[in-house]
Design goal:
By secondary structure, the chain is an alpha+beta fold. Helices cover about 25% and strands about 25% of the residues. It has helices at about 20-35, 75-90, 95-110, and strands at about 40-55, 65-70, 115-120, 120-135, 140, 175-180. Strands 1, 2, 3, 4, 5 and 6 form a 6-stranded antiparallel β-sheet that branches. α2 packs antiparallel against α3. The longest helix has 19 residues, at about 75-90. It starts with about 20 loop residues before the first helix and ends with a strand. Mean pLDDT is about 75; it is low at about 1-10 and about 160-180.
Amino acid sequence: MNDGMQTWPGPRRIVVRAPEDPVEAVTEADACDAPLDVDTALIRGPLFGVAAQELDGEDSPWRVVSALKEGCPQQARDALMDMLWLRAYEESATREERRALLPWIARLERERLDELTVLGTRFRVVRADEYAAVGPDGIETPRPTDPEPVVQAGEEPPRHCPADHGRSHKRTAAAVTVPWKT
């Protein structure tokens, strides 16, 4: 019976980069095994940020330069414009760099640019979807390999995980369910 929900042929594995040490390898393996127990994903919706790639002639990796926390692409474009502005006026070593950056800042004020290349760096507005995995035992709990903040003896633990940039944990996952496997 087809209830209108799209099924996936099996778990999807996305490797951002190869693990560099044994701890990273265990974390990657844990993340790869996690979808095997998931029946459904609850989609919360997209978040946006900025990634950058150095164009140095090699196949340089992309790196996130503005956290994936913005609710719409324009907020990420504004973050990119702020980064370029700071670089032009606070980090720029030469007048030539400033002259290269200012036209892009002006264009970002007027246009919806999702990608631009300036001073040997390609910047791109990127999207990430948040989801909650649901398996036979309910919504997935933290994995043993998920990072925890370091708390020194006698200190109060932080109220928010550093990676969530202070966002509230009271938000619900959402209204759309997508079958994870057949």
